[in-house]
Amino acid sequence: MGKERRKNTRVPFQAIADINFVVKRYSKCETEDLSIKGISVKGPSGQRLGEKCDIFLTLSGSSSELILEMKGEVVRVDPDGVALHFTGIDFDSFYHLKNIVYYNSEDPDQIDLELIDN
Predict the structure, then answer these.
(1) How far apart are CA 92 and CA 69, in angstroms?
(2) Exposed e or buried b per residue across 58-72, where buried means at least 16 C-beta atoms within 10 angstroms of its C-beta
C-alpha cells in the first residue's frame, strides 16, 4: 500500500451532489466522504485529473433544503466516481461545510488545527 497523502480529516457523509463539468453534468450523485478541502462522489466517470467543475451539495432537513456551492477539480479517478478538491467556496457554504465535518469527526480539535494549517 502506498503512503496516505491526505492531510485533512475525512468523515463519512451521505448526501446528494450535482457535479457540472464543462461538457458533462452529473445529477443526484451520492457522496461518500467529505473534508474541509474536498469530497468523494460516486457517479462521474471518464473525467480527467485536473478537470474543473462546479459542485452543488444538497443538504436536506425535515422541513428545508440547503445547497452548498463550491468550485472544484478532479484529484482522483476511481472506477465508480471521482475525488474532488475544493478550489473555491463562498463563506456561507464554508461555514456549513466546516460544521458538517466538525460534528461528524471523531476528533473535532484536529479540524481546528487543519483550519489553522491551511
Answers:
(1) 9
(2) eeeeeeeeeebebeb
Q: Does 4 have pLDDT greater than 60? A: no
Q: For residue 102, give the DSSP letter.
A: H
Write down all domains in the chain, each with its CATH number in brackets: 12-117 (2.40.10.220)
- Cell matching residue 109: 480539535
Count of helices and strands (H, E) across the chain: 2, 7
| 32 Cβ contact list (under 8 Å, min separation 6) | 12, 13, 14, 40, 41, 42, 81
Task: Tell me the pTM.
Answer: 0.84
Percent with pLDDT over 70 in the chain: 83
Residue where the block lists cell 461555514: 95
pLDDT of residue 79: 92
Closest to 15 measured CA to CA, from 50, 39, 44, 47: 39
